[in-house]
Amino acid sequence: MNFKDILGQQMSLKLLQKDIAAGNLPGAYLFSGPPGVGKKMAAISFAKALNCEKNGIDGCNRCSSCIRIDKLNHPNLRIVTPEGDSIRIDQIRELKEEAGYKMYEKGKRVWIIDDAEKLTIEAANSLLKILEEPPTDLTVVLVSSAAWLLPSTIVSRCRVVNFLPLKKEYIGKILMKKDNVPEKLVPLISHLSQGSVSEALKLLEEKTIFQEREKIIQLLKEKKLSQSIFDLSERWNNQKKSVVETLLNITIFFLRDILILKLDPSFPTINQDKINELIEIKDNYSFAELYTGIEAVENSRSLIQANVSTRLVVEGMWMRIFS
Fold first, then answer.
1. CA-CA distances (angstroms) from residue 20 to 16, 111, 200, 306?
2. Last residue within a domain, chosen from 136, 162, 188
3. Which domain holds residue 137?
4. How many CB atoms lie within 10 A of CB 97?
5. pLDDT tens for residues 176-190?
6. What is the pTM of this model?
7. Residues 135, 283: one domain?
8. What digits encode the pLDDT tens for the residues 85-119?
9. What is the CATH number of the domain that holds 134?
10. 86 has which bridge partners?
11. Order of strands, edge to edge, in the sheet holding 28-32?
12. Does 214 lie in the same domain as 153?
């Protein structure tokens, strides 16, 4: 793994490679961005490039140093992760003690502090003393999905590198390399992932979401007001808002696909595994009904975010879709 293997973060990686080429690295970086977009991979690839025996702007993946960093078994690399819910002062003290040891290999010491927002106040203050006067042979990389929780004194001493949510195309490419991901589900999961690979993989394990997806398409097939709508609304009312948001997205993607099939069947659909079922029901819906349905789902999203009862909102949404 090196910079070339990280998709969708070209701007951030070019900045890091520019720093490597210039040879004038700051004492600390903050890799900030949503979870599952490649921040930790970039941090490890950064350490690899700084210690590669080829002295380039990316790891070669072949030298002894690169191989050992891939195995997380290089003396110049340390990765700190939370113990329980926090990163404790003892973990930072251990790093500081190591900083006083002589380096036995060429290259650069790299400390990667993952989930850095979980530093305790004491740990953050201890780390700050290193960041104020960092050793010339050390680069600290803080990795955070919630950088706003870090003390401003820490952030101000870091070069901030922002990582953006991944485009759906990149999520799809990554999922296609996974053995356990059904190919026909890749477009749907890519759209639902919010630009995060970890979110995409988590969605694949969410049985409740896929069970509710079957209920949604069954309602669209029946296209009538029934007890099923009230049962579904009650179930959604007991779910977390994040799950309801995903279910609303699934609903809107079904309506969108039906609309696409009516307008231009050659255009790619999101629900490829349900394409035959959607073709069967597309003539049951007029364009006006589909546009009204999509608007109803979007309005429901806003109402639920405003803390209106999920059960009442979802009941009203389906009534509008079938009105």
1. 6, 16, 32, 47
2. 162
3. 3-162
4. 9
5. 988 778 889 999 999
6. 0.84
7. no
8. 999 999 999 998 887 787 778 889 999 999 999 99
9. 3.40.50.300
10. 83
11. 77-80, 109-113, 138-144, 28-32, 159-162
12. no
